[in-house]
Specification:
Layout (H helix, E strand, L loop, with lengths): L14 H8 L17 E5 L1 H4 L2 H12 L3 E7 L5 E7 L5 E8 L2 H10 L4 E4 L5 H6 L12 E13 L7 E3 H9 L16 E5 L4 H11 L11 E3 L2 H9 L4 E6 L10 E3 L10 H5 L6 E7 L7 H9 L3 H9 L9 E2 L9 H9 L1 E8 L9 H14 L9 E5 L7 H20 L7 E4 L11 H7 L1 E6 L1
Parallel strand pairs: 1-4, 1-5, 7-11, 8-9, 8-10, 15-16
Antiparallel strand pairs: 2-3, 3-4, 5-12, 6-10, 6-12, 13-14, 14-17, 15-17
């Protein structure tokens, strides 16, 4: 994806929230002992809770008038307490642990956490286990808080710039074990991977290994922390690893191609639209039937402009809608190229529940975001165009019809928000961003929004 200007405009947080974000996560001892009962317990993904989770909690505390946030050690790695001074002068605490996505869902089942942080969607098995707590896939339980990408990183001296997902699977399975097989200098490939409890590893396995029928090579070095993994690759000229986009910022990242899709680098734009093959969503989950005011407050705060500013400050991609100009239209269908000449693409894609024509939970909230965006004074005279896409079928006419119906579904949802699309465009199965795996089909079934 090419754009003529930076995609995202940086916005400043309120002074209180920004002050909280700039505080280091280091131990302090200035507050009196806090209450034995924490306000909130947050458990799960290392990707989320190593940085973003505590900052969202701190932002919520600031919004409610709490001051002097401090972090205190617990004696257990990747666990800490965030303490603060309440408006009445008392000291309160929040328990936070970051041992991997799976541990968050286990803690929900054991009722040892209030909120589970996840760097992958909840699985069928986890939904079944947690069914007594309510439907964890419902809109009331599942909140997408940020977007991220699994970056494929190599040593700064490595000349490799691009891979397809099949090659990537073969590398991490050990089928391709020498850099010479990829056009590089002869020498063994050293693999760096996250541990089994990590949602980052779950996502890599689901998007890369499983579709290719592969398993991770037992010789891969495993790490609990994204940052530690990235640091190790920095010092290994033969290394290749996968980690979060935020942790990979200082290393070369490879462009990836999925099936018939084009090679795409991880960037704010390609991750915001989820076009990048290894784009992923970061979640908070909470039982819909049992939640405190603090749980409800954290979930809702994560969706606000202040919460999304914290997402951006934490190195992830916020759920903001911004226009960008598409400048490279080579090889694109004429209808799409014409649209790119007269309109700007918005940094949001609407996707659907797997095997369904219903908008997924993120898309439902994105409808509200797009409606708010279109109500801005500067957009009063501009026209909204929705472009629908479908995955490939044996009948191109059917693919075109389904693509139009997807655009119509988004238009209908917007109409309920008193926002009206000026035009619907069907691109059928053209311009795929992924292959024909189950995950690829979900990504290809999408609706883009354009501003004219």
């Amino acid at each position: 994806m090419n754009c003529s200007a930076p995609v995202f405009r940086r916005t400043l947080l309120r002074r209180a929230v920004l002050t909280l974000l700039l505080l280091p996560l280091a131990p302090y001892t200035t507050l009196a002992a806090e209450s034995d009962t924490p306000l909130l317990r947050l458990q799960g993904s290392n990707t989320v809770n190593a940085r973003l989770g505590p900052r969202l909690v701190a932002g919520l505390l600031a919004e409610r008038g709490y001051q002097q946030p401090q972090t205190l050690p617990t004696g257990v790695m990747d666990e800490w307490r965030l303490v603060a001074r309440a408006p009445d002068g008392s000291s309160v605490s929040v328990q936070i642990a970051a041992h991997g996505t799976g541990t968050g869902f286990t803690a929900l089942a054991n009722k040892t956490t209030d909120v589970a942080a996840a760097s992958r969607p909840i699985t069928d098995a986890e939904v079944t286990t947690l069914a007594p707590l309510g439907d964890l896939r419902s809109r009331q339980a599942e909140y997408v808080i940020a977007l991220d990408g699994l970056a494929i990183i190599v040593h700064p001296g490595n000349p490799l710039r691009e891979l397809d997902l099949q090659q990537l699977a073969q590398i991490f399975a050990g089928d391709i074990g020498d850099w010479q097989q990829l056009g590089g200098q002869p020498g063994p490939i050293h693999l760096y991977a996250r541990d089994d409890r990590s949602g980052t590893y779950d996502t890599f396995r689901e998007l890369v290994l499983t579709p290719a029928g592969k398993r991770l090579n037992a010789q891969a070095k495993r790490y609990e922390s994204n940052e530690e993994l990235a640091e190790q690759v920095t010092h290994d000229p033969a290394g290749i690893g996968f980690t979060s986009l935020a942790a990979a910022a200082k290393l070369p990242m490879l462009a990836l191609r999925d099936g018939e899709g084009r090679a795409i680098l991880p960037s704010e734009a390609s991750i915001a639209t989820e076009d990048y093959p290894l784009a992923r969503r970061l979640f908070l989950y909470a039982p819909p039937n049992e939640r405190s005011d603090w749980v409800r407050g954290l979930l809702e705060f994560s969706q606000t402009p202040a919460g999304q500013s914290i997402v951006q400050q934490s190195g992830f991609v916020a759920q903001r809608i911004e226009p960008l100009r598409i400048t490279n239209t080579q090889g694109m269908p004429k209808a799409y190229a014409d649209l790119a000449q007269r309109a700007q693409r918005l940094t949001v894609n609407f996707r659907f529940t797997a095997g369904s024509a219903q908008l997924d939970n993120k898309a439902l909230r994105d409808v509200e975001r797009l409606a708010d965006f279109m109500r801005l004074p500067e957009n009063a005279s501009r026209r909204l165009v929705l472009a629908g896409f479908n995955d490939a079928t044996e009948d191109p006419a059917r693919a075109a019809l389904l693509a139009r119906l997807r655009a119509l579904a988004v238009a209908t949802a917007l109409r309920h928000q008193k926002v009206f699309a000026a035009d619907l465009l069907s691109l059928g199965d053209q311009l795929p961003v992924a292959g024909l795996s189950p995950n690829g089909r979900v990504k290809n079934r999408r609706v883009e929004a354009w501003l004219q």
